[in-house]
Amino acid sequence: LAAFAANAQYRLIYESFTIGGGDTTHTLVATSPNQNCALISSADPEEANPIPGIAGHFTYIDYSRDTVFYQLFYSKDEQYFTGYSLNNGNAYTLEKTEKVNGYNCRKYTTTLFSNKMEIWVTEDLKNHRATPSAAFGNLPGVVVQITRNGNTTTRLASKEKYKDVAPIIPAGDVLGQRMDRRELGNLEKEKLEEQIKEAQQLSEEIGQ
Q: With a threshold of 0.90, does the pTM exceed it?
């Protein structure tokens, strides 16, 4: 992969897969050194018939404030979000320096929720910072690859330069109704359960 322009915005595509089976999923990371921020979202096509009550998930990283904003997007009129520190207390061990996907990378290891994590990060890409997971957003540079427990890998697959047309983080942090992390998780669960219950009731009425 070629080097990045120092001040341009880019869209990075990461692919995630498990050795021995399962589908490959894709994550989009938009990164802007001028704004010192990044946006993480799914890059997979939307389902033709999505289950009602499932929100879109967007993660905004504001490096200048060491803050992560996590948003549930149900519609343009219904959005919720939470904010928390980018510095999550992960204790990293720097293992070695090696080439990965054409980049000079530092390999870090850590444990996250009892999982062994290996993370390769490059600072070859000038002013850019990017990660497909906010859990590792406090590492310097661009994450090139993450491997969990030796068999599940997320790696940088492609990049595309794009024109700076709007802030990655909405102006004024207008991301919806703010909640704490527990409240947001409970809300998402409750809304999904409500939709499933309504779908079951409708199915029973149609069957009568």
A: no
